[in-house]
Design brief:
The protein is of the alpha+beta class and 356 residues long. It is built from 11 helices and 10 strands. The protein has 2 domains: 13-188 and 232-296 and 314-348, Ribosomal Protein S8, Chain: A, domain 1, CATH 3.30.1370; 189-231, 2-Layer Sandwich (Wheat Germ Agglutinin (Isolectin 2), domain 1), CATH 3.30.60.50.
Length: 356
Amino acid sequence: MNTAMSQTHRYSHQDLIEFATRLLRAAGLDQDKAHTVADILVEGDLMGHTTHGLAQLPGYLGELESGSMTKDGEPEVIADFPAALTWHGRRLPGPWLVMQAMKEASRRAATQGTCTVVIRRSHHIACLAAYLKRATDQGLVMQLLSSDANSASVAPFGGLDAVFTPNPIAMGFPTNQLPVLVDISASITTNGLTNRLHKEGQLLPGEWVMDGHGHPSRDPGVLFEEPKGTILPLGGMDVGHKGYGLTMMVEALTGGLAGFGRADPRQGWGATVFLQILDPKAFAGLDAFTRQTSAVADACHASRPRNPDQPVRTPGERGLQLAEIQKVEGVALYESILPALVPWAQKLGVPLPPAL
């Protein structure tokens, strides 16, 4: 969920990556892991996903300090087939694990046409959209799904008790122009946004949550009251069976294929991950693929806009354009992000990034 950025200060995205890398290095990660995590987090802010960028860094640093996020080593291989891998993530940093999985899946897809990597016991993987362009720039199609069996904030459609996390679903594919980058949740909103708005005493834009008695609400506070409320599945009170179906699909492709999920004891904040790379060259060919995807994107752009001031965009277009602007003009961090990192910077002896 993109949110308004009310802070006027802007920061160089490279300075933010360096700042986050130095914090993570001081917290115990090696250079490769620290830089990879920092790069993905800042990419989230560049694209406007302000709840899943550097807003996650204080939590990551706390997990490193407590030992709940593993600092060293590699994932363990549980199963290995030419086009299918299963890893035990050992609670290593999620963005680093996903990037390692992308590299291996892309390598194997070049000969197999496709490769899927599922990861059990990864740590949190941040903003899913932040990974997609890395695949589409290579002419590849990527799917990325995630669940977290450690917590529950979304009820099944028709129920009152939380069973699921928001269970994000992402997909990226190339066209002859901008790639299409889909990043949605199987729920209407996310834990990140409801937590933020609750702390700020604000309401949600719509009735996206349900209180513990089954009444729809705009107040994220119902998630923290007894009986606890829940985030509504995509489709809300009326057609939430659709989001419920997507949620069940994510659970099967993550926890089911990885063999670790809600049937197991909780392990702490983390993620179970499904990542798939498809190489169009193994099918009808990349040119044929982008001819079709470009025709669809062009038709969307040509559709008469309901609001003349808001032309139709393809998924991810706004985020890509915002990222290019912020690379030049600086990143406008959401107002609560840097203050949350100041104590960590002081504790770890890392200077704050200069404002532009």
